[in-house]
Amino acid sequence: MKYAILNRGDELSLELTERFHYLAAEQQLIHHDESPDIVVSIGGDGTMLQAFHRYIDQLNSTAFVGIHTGHLGFYADWKADEIELLVQLMGNHNQAETLQPRIVKYPLIDLIVTTHHQETTRYTALNEFTLKGIDGTLVAQIDINDQLFEMFRGDGICVSTPSGSTAYNKSLGGAMVHPSIASIQLAEIASINNRVFRTLGSSLVLPKHHHFDIFSRKEQRLLLTIDHLNSTVDNLSSIRCQVSDQTVTFVRYRPFPFWNRVREAFLGYE
Ligand code: NAP
Ligand code: MN
């Protein structure tokens, strides 16, 4: 079995990376950065986002596992002192097809950005994307399934996956969504409500096979952030988003239910 490692670059993560390579060699695991079966992220959830985007073109053939070197992560759920156990489990899996680990597949967001020149670019997000005004408030029209839904004015819009619902979306008062529910959630970032601009105020969860469009409704410079990646868009016409046909695969060498992770991360007890 081939593996690759991405780490946060701090001292502990670098040390663990060395240790991982050493232990992996003993288990006949092959270090292969170009086309790994398993990508190991060592750091935090942010490191997993980087790993995901590094291997975004290989989602069908690659699975991810995360070791956290800080606080408990949502994507990084193995502790630093469990590295021996993890490598051993990966080694078992390498040696016997019957010891295949459980895998879980999480939904992703598919977004298509169209500019005024009709150029379209497709992106995939693991946590969320946000759209914000750079020089002032964002002015946008939101359609759901090709029907006008609302006129938005405010700081911005956040569209998250279920596994991203515990990240930025949570700070916006959005709901925590179990990753077995293929859906996307639209949350408002400080909407302004008056007679002209009226938004729902609650966040919305859309199922698979629904889509919505965000139409830019003034000349505006916008900041489009996809997970940890920022870009400026000067001439946005619209963004179409829906649940992606692709999923991301995580290897689960042991169960760690989503609600347990929510409890441990936010309520602080195990
Ligand atoms: P960061 O500033 O380190 O991330 C902010 C926090 O979000 C970190 O504590 C990060 O954990 C955590 N996080 C990331 N994904 C998560 C998830 N799925 N569930 C729960 N917590 C999660 O920047 P970053 O590490 O590059 O991460 C980018 C993410 O930050 C974005 O995707 C967005 O969700 C989040 N963010 C949140 C806010 C906000 O809440 N106001 C604002 C901007 C961005 P680690 O420390 O383990 O990396
Ligand atoms: Mn981070």
UniProtKB/TrEMBL annotation:
Name recorded for this polypeptide: NAD kinase
Listed Gene3D superfamilies: Probable inorganic polyphosphate/atp-NAD kinase, domain 1, Probable inorganic polyphosphate/atp-NAD kinase, domain 2
A GO term for molecular function: NAD+ kinase activity
HAMAP family on file: NAD_kinase (MF_00361)
One GO term of the biological process aspect: NAD+ metabolic process
Localization (cell): Cytoplasm
Origin superkingdom: Bacteria
